[in-house]
Amino acid sequence: MTNTYDALIIGAGQAGPPLAERLTAAGMSVGLIERKLFGGTCVNTGCIPIKTLVASAYAAQLARRAMEHGVSTGGEVAVDMKAVKARKDMVSTRARKGVESWLERMERCTVHRGHARFLSPREVQVGTDRVVAQHIFINVGGRALVPDLPGIDRVATLTNTSILELDMLPQHLVVVGGSYVGLEFAQMYRRFGAAVTRAIGCFVRLV
After folding, report:
1. Architecture of the domain made up of 152-201
2. Is the pTM of this model over 0.90?
């Protein structure tokens, strides 16, 4: 089946849906392709889930220091990592469904689900559909890159994406990297109760 639009957007990440809204508001027909999770990095593996975890870690730290403010918590503070992850999943899923619903209701916008593959400068294949557009915008985001460090193939590693699936507290994390992402994970897991060591690079090691 062939679908023809004025514009085609590949990827429903942070920029894709607002661009679709601007183009459709200008009277253009728009096709939007997403192969996996609507909302992109921010909604699924970045800002929203990480900030949700940061908030849980902050609550744990605040509870531990409550006596400094004259407040008694009635005992040792315990962190339920399964509940922490469940809350993170709920917040992220709600945001993702909101983006998907917004696009599906958008006038003059058609959502295609699947992997996009270019056939020519103006043609894209997605599933069994052929999509043609005069203007094509690529909004596919990025992925974590695990550095080729000696011995890394012999240890268990986590990226900033896979660590979000943990529902247990590691005894010890080695966070390799000093960017804001590494610092956020180092701080939150220290506040959850894990021992944390920070080194140089861009991956997280579970030991």
Report:
1. 3-Layer(bba) Sandwich (3.50)
2. no
